[in-house]
Amino acid sequence: xxxxxxxxxxxxxxxxxxxxxxxxxxxxxxxxxxxxxxxxxxxxxxxxxxxxxxxxxxxxxxxxxxxxxxxxxxxxxxxxxxxxxxxxxxxxxxxxxxxxxxxxxxxxxxxxxxxxxxxxxxxxxxxxxxxxxxxxxxxxxxxxxxxxxxxxxxxxxxxxxxxxxxxxxxxxxxxxxxxxxxxxxxxxxxxxxxxxxxxxxxxxxxxxxxxxxxxxxxxxxxxxxxxxxxxxxxxxxxxxxxxxxxxxxxxxxxxxxxxxxxxxxxxxxxxxxxxxxxxxxxxxxxxxxxxxxxxxxxxxxxxxxxxxxxxxxxxxxxxxxxxxxxxxxxxxxxxxxxxxxxxxxxxxxxxxxxxxxxxxxxxxxxxxxxxxxxxxxxxxxxxxxxxxxxxxxxxxxxxxxxx
Length: 403
Description:
Shape: elongated
Order of helices and strands: HEHEHEHEHEHEEHEHEHEHEHEHHHH
Oligomer: single chain
CATH class of the largest domain: Alpha Beta
Distance between the termini: 24 Å
Structural class: alpha/beta
Number of helices: 15
CATH topology of the largest domain: Rossmann fold
CATH superfamily of the largest domain: Response regulator
């Protein structure tokens, strides 16, 4: 991967560099701090802009500073102006982190050397820091928000029907790489028994199995379950002739991947699958939410599953009170309190890849900032409704066994 080559070649340029991190959000501070430490940098992280200015006034030597845009009392742009009155761009390059979209260059180029969109991607942050520290911080670097290559991690319940132990291991590992887990059935009969116990959104169905093969198992599933509560069945077979495909579809299968399974083909097939609707017969499951697999993997890369669990725990601990603050401040017409709570929920949600939840919070934040509260009550209600499924999805992710 090119990013790994860049990291290997560039590490000496960042090792030993002192970086000032200013962000009122504890999770975001920790993420940037962990990245910086992993690259050999010496991070100093503070919550408040006033604390950052105090360090600079005391003459603390920093090679670069990373500033969050939305902070209470003083935002990143105002803080940058204060820093610039004390240190030049050559003395201290400033990197802005923002979830509000790119600031106009006329507004930012005089104080910032670069700006990045949140949620951050590690390689993008690394390459930007490397550029600024080797280019002297002159001129604002054009850095586009990361939009390509994101995989929406759907919290699908998957059943793997496969009799071969080695193939089971390979399939489970491929699923894990894309943020999924699965239960295993060793033949078609076991697959049907599993579906009788609980609903699944997807069945990865091997065609050649003992006792009951994949084709006959699929026919029985189609006979027993109506279309609206039937899983999305993906055939897995080494027989790749057109007539083999036709036999799979004729049996009632929805999709097809050839063996040996390629990671990208499996991911594409799962992306085409849709979760079962709520209220299906026999289903007591909650709604499903989409989580960005890239965001989750970035957290794993920082500290493994333990760190991801810590971030999830922090979100789940803070969110109920923040959501209560939304409702209370809305009732009391407290627009600034409303904006701050919405901003924190948006930032924390985006960190965990909860894009739909974060977007609702972002819209509410913008309404509160503009003092336009028409429709804000409905937004708060949507956020409350979205939080339940998100909480359950994160709790399920939190409890997934580490392989």
